[in-house]
Fold these 2 entries.
Entry 1:
Amino acid sequence: MSNVLFVSSEAFPLIKTGGLGDVAGSLPSALLKQAQDVRLLLPAYPDVLKNTTKKKILAKSSYYYLDVELIESRLPGTNVTVLLVNCPAAFDRPGGPYSNQFGREWDDNALRFAIFCHAAVDIALNKLNLNWQPDIVHCNDWQSGLIPALLSLHKKRPATVFTIHNLAYQGVFEQSTFADLHLPGELWHMDGVEYYNQLSFIKAGLAYADKITAVSPTYAKEILEPEYAYGLDGLLSHRKQHLSGILNGIDEKHWNPGTDNYLAQKYNRRSLAKKSINKTALQKELSLPINQDIPMIGMVSRLVEQKGFDIILQALKEILKMPLQLVILGTGESHYELKLCEFEKQHPENFKIVVGYNEALAHRIEAASDMYLMPSTFEPCGLNQLYSLRYGTLPIVTAVGGLADTVINASEENIRNTTANGFVLKNKSSSELLNCIKNALSLYQTPEIWQQLQVTAMSGDFSWEASAKSYVALYQEAIKEI
Ligand code: ADP
Ligand code: GLC
């Protein structure tokens, strides 16, 4: 058994902006089941404080002359202990974890997450007298990047694992930030935290962690190439022997069409006929024409380039000429919101865009749709295609990252050998997207085949168990090696 400090800047159900929140909300429980003593470290944002109970102050400290309390609580719905870094100056403000209510990144993000990292380092080195010290510090994404770097300066320290959820977000700040944060001078060099004369939080994690993981095997390979590495392929190639890919799992309690309380009608793979009740319920909810036979394509997504909105917009006029309904729930870059709203105005009979973040609607779209659109330009793992598979909603995806690892194309051969569970674009183009949708629509007209694809999709094992075991094996390796 190891003691694991799992560090994340978000965790469902307390705070979530994307898949990292889902992972940090469910992987720690899976690690507990593998007999690891896991504590989850989170910033104490207002929503986090509001939604946690039985809080206890464990320690007090101060970083950059700002008062910090370490509060213990529980991740709701689990047995996972959460440790909250309560620094009101950094985290007690309205808006999101990384940006304000208008989507503008907080100006002091470097300071905010440096405080978070210092608290983690103090726990790791047992400086807060918690009566508990980790053997492993498992860091996630750039917000936790300084931790492996700072810990590397200590002889007696826990081992560190850094998981890349998305290399496109790096936490890069101007050079003066390094001095402002009083970071140790020995970290400032080309193989350290310095990145083209700037301070890179993610590079700090990648350069100094004992082990690096990416959230799917394919993404772990892709990021060795310039196309996917956002400038970090050199460093990652250099650290290749410590880099591996471990596929994300899903929280099967929360994402299960058989028990999902958000749905108008629960169903499973033996009662697939009931699934369409969710379609008509959603059509009613969103004021779309009610018709259980028309194929519905769904999408729940951050509205960013990564998710393939450029090729979707190029193809949208043609897509909306087809006999289908398209429903998108998302929030993000305003130019995408505007263009999608424009299309909605022109095609109210078969297109609905809901701008915003809505957990319940996300579940209802997964259940109501027949197909799920995810033609990402890159996708470290992707959780929505996994939710879709579980809900018998066949994903239409590009062959990148975790999408390539989890979706098997409905080719004639794969249908024959009953492995097909979705539709995979041959390349990332709008014409190929149209081809794939046409192919999906034509197979939809053959209910026996469609149902077989759905059953295959719903029978896949996307639980955390296997991946949690892989993390535990990696922890053991890291502990042995330091
Ligand atoms: P990413 O982390 O890149 O955004 P993932 O597929 O890994 O992509 O995870 C996205 C998660 O965020 C899913 O749980 C998805 O349902 C959720 N999500 C994204 N946008 C919204 C939204 N507008 N409303 C509700 N949930 C959303
Ligand atoms: C990131 C990635 C997504 C992945 C998620 C959780 O946000 O974009 O592909 O599923 O992290 O690891």
Entry 2:
Amino acid sequence: MRHREENIILIGFMGSGKTTFGRWISKNKNYQFCDTDQYIEEQKNRTIKDIFANQGEEAFRDMETAALKELCDRLKNTVVSVGGGLPVREENRKLLKQLGMVVYLRAAEDELVKRLSHDTSRPLLAGGDLKSKIQNLMSAREALYIDAADVVIDTDHMSFEEMYDVISKASEEIRQ
Ligand code: S3P
């Protein structure tokens, strides 16, 4: 098993800022960056939207688990942003803990609605009432995100610097 502090794993709902914050960490703190959605899209040479449309959600979830297993074998000093639904599978939550320190970026539902209102890339949010879709998915997932996480950050009024400070302190505590 890897030493848990070697990688920082960002989990959370779509629109919670995993990719933006992950890229910020990698640029400012000298980490590598990996995004599981991007990894799968490059590997399959298709967009997530295409994969959902042609092969369905279950096939995509299998791709996420396979990707996670591959990444567990080789990532080090990397910040990993994972798709919002990846921690839902119990097997994936176990793999995340092996991969590194898991940080749940929590964002208020109203904020997520604002950020996602013009999004067309996420199949699970397409059509219908966005707010109730977000509420339904969130109520099914929140406990699983918390179960997967070593650290929970309420991101709404925090700067990236402040969020990173929380991660650094948690990482020191885990190492002691
Ligand atoms: C999903 C989140 C997306 C992507 C796919 C499904 C989900 O990733 O994996 O559309 O189930 O929450 P982001 O969280 O990076 O948007």
